[in-house]
Write a sequence for this structure.
């Protein structure tokens, strides 16, 4: 089922004209920047976007302008793990990694538990906080580490915020035990905050 969904979502995104994708991408980024949680975050992890994803360049530039620390992922195919490294530019000290996605060339990994806000990509999200990645599990493993208090967390757990085109937002997604949910979803049409319902479910 996940394989068919991935194929369908890819076709939907690829069908969007480049100009429409560009406009929707900017709207989604502006919605992300408008979040109080983003304004409060001092350390933000972004993904370095591919053509079919919501761009993150505007988010990074605004984060630097606000004096925030910006991190980006570096992935390892051997164990499908991922680390976060600080970046100071969208042009310098970035190299093509697996799947030809740019990633930091060097540096020291940042403790996952000390990231305030993680901007999370996906092929699709659901309206209850579910996420459908590309199948490699990089973000599921990283979010699990970030939510583990033994991985350097000091105060509140990192906030996982999905970023998507509205066409990537579905009512439901198949979720398994290892799938890590997001806390907030932002698209070009608005945002959804899943934390209240999730906390209420834990209390009952």
């Amino acid at each position: 089922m996940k394989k068919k969904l991935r194929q369908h979502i890819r076709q939907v995104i690829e069908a969007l004209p480049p100009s429409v994708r560009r406009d929707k991408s900017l709207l989604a980024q502006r919605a992300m920047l408008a979040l109080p949680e983003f304004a409060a975050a001092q350390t933000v992890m972004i993904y370095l976007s591919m053509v079919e994803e919501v761009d993150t360049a505007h988010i990074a530039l605004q984060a630097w302008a606000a004096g925030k620390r910006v991190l980006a992922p570096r992935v390892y195919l051997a164990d499908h793990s991922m680390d976060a490294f600080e970046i100071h530019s969208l042009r310098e000290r970035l190299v093509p990694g697996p799947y030809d996605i740019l990633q930091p060339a060097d540096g020291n990994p940042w403790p996952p538990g000390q990231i305030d806000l993680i901007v999370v990509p996906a092929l699709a999200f659901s309206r209850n906080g579910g996420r459908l990645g590309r199948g490699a599990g990089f973000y599921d493993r990283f979010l699990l580490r970030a939510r583990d208090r033994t991985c350097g967390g000091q105060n509140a757990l990192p906030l996982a915020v999905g970023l998507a085109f509205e066409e990537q937002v579905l009512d439901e997604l198949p979720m398994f035990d290892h799938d890590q949910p997001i806390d907030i979803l932002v698209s070009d049409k608005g945002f959804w905050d899943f934390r209240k319902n999730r906390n209420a479910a834990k209390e009952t």
